[in-house]
Design brief:
Mean pLDDT: 93
Strand content: 25-35%
Family: Belongs to the NADH dehydrogenase family.
Number of domains: 3
Structural class: alpha/beta
Oligomer: single chain
Shape: elongated
Number of strands: 23
CATH superfamily of the largest domain: FAD/NAD(P)-binding domain
Keywords: FAD, Flavoprotein, Oxidoreductase
Organism: Nitrosospira briensis
Largest sheet: 6 strands, mixed
CATH class of the largest domain: Alpha Beta
GO molecular function: NAD(P)H dehydrogenase (quinone) activity
CATH architecture of the largest domain: 3-Layer(bba) Sandwich
Protein name: NADH dehydrogenase
Length: 385
């Protein structure tokens, strides 16, 4: 069994419930079983599979199944249990769970020693017509199938595609769509609508310059400082950011990438314990996109932060169950970030945010990070603490 500093087990078989089977939940599962193979772990998640959500833009090249791992597979691999459910847990319910040490799911009482909230942050939702799609749609249908189905129903003169949102997700989908159209020799016009003056505004300007140059190379129209209002039949209604003047453009299909829904975050102390009325719930932890840690560590909504929080919460659950109860604070800082710009290009930073790299070096970083997580899914932990 690997050594975990400041962990002296009391030889008790822990019962642990993990709500959420995304990056943070799976990272916690692997970490817990690595140090306590006999732990009884139940994952509560409404889906039948773990989804590598950061790969969804690649479904314009690969089948969606390539990025799904069924919870039955994880059950056979790690010996955990999976319940399909999406419990609603407010502060009062969590406080009650802390006192009662059980959670009711699908009319079943799940007793636990520790509860880990890792359900993620919900995607922003708006009313959609049949030719409007967002990230939720890609969770059930491959991008290639979805786009082909809509374009096949259009006349060639109507094939205009709008991508709304120039953050990391929108940009990755934008470039995958552009290269998909080229590979399939589909004559269609592609545009990006973004509310800021440059794409990838959350990153150094080098990201924006690199991505926008590649957009120009691919003849992608760019509408900066422009807000999406609605889609009506074959037209998209937009609004200029400065003048607020509204105008419409032809658009057979619109892809909306509006980010995460605000107000759904769970506060935690520096050790990952949920805070309710400024007091930590000793046996309830949180990790992933749904969590904000009160520490100097990274709270970005990225897969690498979710994985690191999941691992830290798991280690602290074990330490809290042991004889010493000396917990580890969250100090992780992202070591880099890469935005894919299609099958053979990317832009990112490594070590320092000002150290912007593009092309093959950025692609190599991306491949290494993805390979590291794939190893974790098999139970092999190559992450440095």
């Amino acid at each position: 069994m690997p050594f975990l500093p400041f962990y002296l087990p009391r030889h008790k078989q822990l019962k642990i419930v993990i709500v959420g089977g995304g990056y943070a939940g799976v990272a916690a599962l692997v970490t817990l079983l690595r140090h306590m193979p006999e732990a009884r772990i139940t994952i509560v998640d409404p889906r039948s599979h773990h989804l590598k959500i950061t790969h969804l833009h690649e479904t314009f090249r690969y089948p969606l199944d390539d990025f799904l791992i069924s919870f039955s597979t994880l059950k056979n691999r790690f010996g955990c249990r999976h319940i399909r459910a999406e419990p609603s847990l407010d502060d009062y319910t969590l406080w009650q769970c802390q006192n009662d040490k059980f959670l009711t799911v699908n009319d079943e009482i799940l007793e636990f020693d520790y509860l880990l909230m890792a359900s993620g942050s919900p995607i922003a939702q708006i009313a959609k017509q049949k030719n409007i799609f967002d990230l939720e749609d890609f969770m059930t249908t491959a991008g290639s199938d979805l786009l082909s189905r809509v374009l096949d129903a259009c006349n060639k003169s109507e094939r205009v595609i709008s991508v709304i949102g120039g953050g990391a997700t929108g940009i990755q989908f934008l470039f995958e769509i552009a290269y998909f159209l080229r590979r399939q020799k589909i004559d269609a016009k592609l545009r990006l609508v973004h509310g800021e003056d440059r794409v990838l505004k959350q990153f150094p300007e080098g990201f924006s310059a690199y991505a926008q140059t590649r957009m120009a190379d691919l003849d992608i129209d760019f509408y900066p400082n422009t807000r999406y209002r609605s889609q009506e039949a074959g037209n998209i209604l937009l609004e200029e950011g400065e003048t607020h003047a509204q105008f419409s453009l032809p658009s057979a299909i619109s892809f909306l990438f509006l980010g995460r829904k605000p107000g759904a975050l769970r506060s935690a102390n520096a050790f990952g314990q949920v805070m309710v009325e400024r007091k930590p719930l000793q046996n309830i932890f949180t990790a992933g996109d749904c969590s904000i840690y009160d520490s100097s560590g990274s709270n970005t909504m990225t897969a690498q932060s979710a994985v690191r929080k999941g691992m830290l919460a798991a280690r602290n659950i074990l330490r809290h169950s042991g004889a010493i109860k000396l917990l580890e604070p969250y100090f992780h800082r992202d070591l880099g970030y890469v935005v894919s710009l299609g099958p053979a290009d990317a832009v990112g930073w490594l070590a320092l945010e000002g150290n912007v790299v593009g092309g093959m070096p950025a692609l190599l970083i991306k491949e290494l990070v993805e390979a590291q997580y794939d190893l974790l899914l098999t139970g092999i932990d190559t992450y440095l603490v």
